[in-house]
């Protein structure tokens, strides 16, 4: 008896089967661990994504580059990286990191689990008094990943309230004034996050539009397939009606005529199926990219959203979003039936003998 396939976790690498470590975004939008990518590159001449079979890298892109360079050139999925870390933190035994008592709270800044007493001390210490602490029971891995506060790139214990677009770093107020005052792209962290989120929303909407177009075109192809099937059935009926006039004589002609229509429509149906398969592949890519963008928008730590904006934009801009059918696939035209002239002559002879056809008349 066949067993049901095991469900794959969102955080599980399709190659090693473990939670992602340094997850890299493939050109198709799916993820693999960095080391799994290098392993796949070294063991296959044409390495492909295990989920959709799209190429990880072309021969031209691979030429003259080491496996590490190829893997490192792929963008890191910061949302998935944060989700895996959050799952590992929440999945461990909930005991206080200080006194080993049952933990009830977690610090979103340093990810330490604490009992209520140690939490009180934690929020009174000078170094951690401004840390954000929440009840651990109320948090999911997704919630923890998306709610962790942005921290200063120079001071890991300070909340970042500025972002330097020129250097791509989150900054506390002191660092913003002392080290990045002259930077032209220095602004509030909140504004930078709004800009990044707005950009990701536009990417999502762009992918949604492309997906809708693919769905509409696939629906149109289904209509064409049904029309082709209907045309084939109608052609067979026409052949049957013509051949049924004198069944004994035209049985072989009937079969030839059927094969003629079936073969004529087979090439069209093959073309429709090929176009449908191509669009289905495009739909899978667009869905993967759309899911990636939306997950990045919702789960990436605020200070890392800007890091994801550029690689994701490049990914989407590099996609083929066009969805135009070749003109010959938009309309199903039925080829004209041609009856063998010798068969017609035989029918005419027989009909004349039967008195069903006068001299000078022809079978039409």
Write the layout of secondary structure elements.
Layout: E1 23-25, E2 31-33, H1 34-43, H2 59-62, H3 67-73, H4 78-91, E3 105-107, E4 113-114, H5 116-122, E5 133-135, H6 141-147, E6 162-164, E7 169-171, H7 173-178, E8 186-188, H8 189-243, H9 247-299, H10 305-317, H11 327-330, H12 341-354
Protein name: RING-type domain-containing protein
Domain RING-type: 13-52
Pfam family, one: zf-C3HC4
In DSSP terms, counting alpha (H) and pi (I) runs of 4 or more, how many helices?
A: 12
Q: What does the radius of gyration come to?
A: 33 Å
- Terminal Cα span: 61 Å
Whole-number total of structural domains: 3
Shape: elongated
Q: Give the averaged pLDDT, no decimals.
A: 83
Low-confidence residue ranges = 1-6
Question: Helical percent range?
Answer: 40-55%
Largest sheet: 3 strands, antiparallel
Q: In terms of structural class, how would the helical and strand content be classed?
A: mainly alpha
User: Order of strands in the sheet with the most strands?
Assistant: 4-3-5
Number of strands: 8
As a percent range, the share of strand residues is 5-15%
* N-to-C order of helices and strands: EEHHHHEEHEHEEHEHHHHH
